Amino acid sequence: MPRPSDEEPKQALPTGRALPTVIDCVPKIMLNAATSGFQTTRWTLIKAAAVSPTTDSRDALATLCQTYWPPVYAFIRRNGHDPERSQDLTQGFFTLLLEKNYLLDADRQRGRFRSFLLTAVKHFLANEWDREHAQKRGGGKGPISIDTVEAESWYLPAMVDEATPESLFQRRWALSLLEHVMAGLRAEFALAGKAEQFEKLSVFLNQDAGETRYKELADEMGLSTGALRTSVHRLRRTYRRLLREEIAQTVSTPEETDEEIRFLLSTLTS
Fold first, then answer.
1. For residues 168 and 175, what is the distance between their CA atoms, to the nearest angstrom?
2. Which residue in 131, 135, 179, 134 sits closest to 153, CA to CA?
3. Above 60 in pLDDT, residue 168?
């Protein structure tokens, strides 16, 4: 099997970590995977309960919103609002989304949460609901937790002249998804008492460091290079599994999962 390229990643996660190039392996290994066991996901649960929301569907929507607020903030910010106003508008949008039955406007038969969220925030701004109802700073606790320092640390370097609100939304969506996957991967290792091992091995998600790096880390960990490569293979396999599981939470069908993986790759390599 050919080894991954040593070319530097074109993007970086907002946490400062390089973008995992291992996602380049995803189409070869995971596309067209078995789909007979596709289960109810957060998004299918939310859409099914759009008319009469349940506790489970509200919790599922709140989870997705907390994970994917950064692209909404980036979209609003690129539409010309300053950081403080963007935070207020983002909170106002999610207040409407979570407390009102805004999902009645969603196509219940098809569609991805990513597409719904982008369309919904466009309508939110176009309808000027924000001017009347956006929650002002100090006016109470918003429905989601927004870290504006983190949001701005990504937004400012990403804001190039040709970037549109839509393109920033799509790019930040993809990076938010990868952040969530990396957090889940780190949590799995920590739960198994292998947090330190994760920190050492995670460099191999970013690039193929070459034989020298494998040997140096193997000596440091008291392993053979063969054993280390096996551990890295398992790490990448778990990463791919979590990546697909996370994407599945935002779509309605197995086919859409594969399409979202293609979207992820095209967005992060463009």
1. 11
2. 179
3. yes
Mean pLDDT of all residues belonging to the chain: 75
Q: Is 9 left (phi over 0), alpha (psi -120 to 50) or beta?
A: beta
177, 263 Cβ separation under 8 angstroms: no
113's tokens? 């949460």
Token pair for 57: 């569907």
- Note if the pTM is more than 0.85: no
Per-residue pLDDT tens for 22-57? Answer: 444 443 333 344 433 445 567 776 766 566 677 887
In terms of Cα–Cα distance, which of 179, 268, 194 is closest to 234?
194
For 108-173, give the DSSP string: SSS--HHHHHHHHHHHHHHTTHHHHHPPPTTSS--SS---HHHHHHHHHHH--TT--HHHHHHHHH
CA atoms within 13 A on the CB side of 49: 17
| Alpha-carbon span 236 to 22, nearest angstrom | 7
Residue 18, φ and ψ in degrees, nearest 5: -70, 155
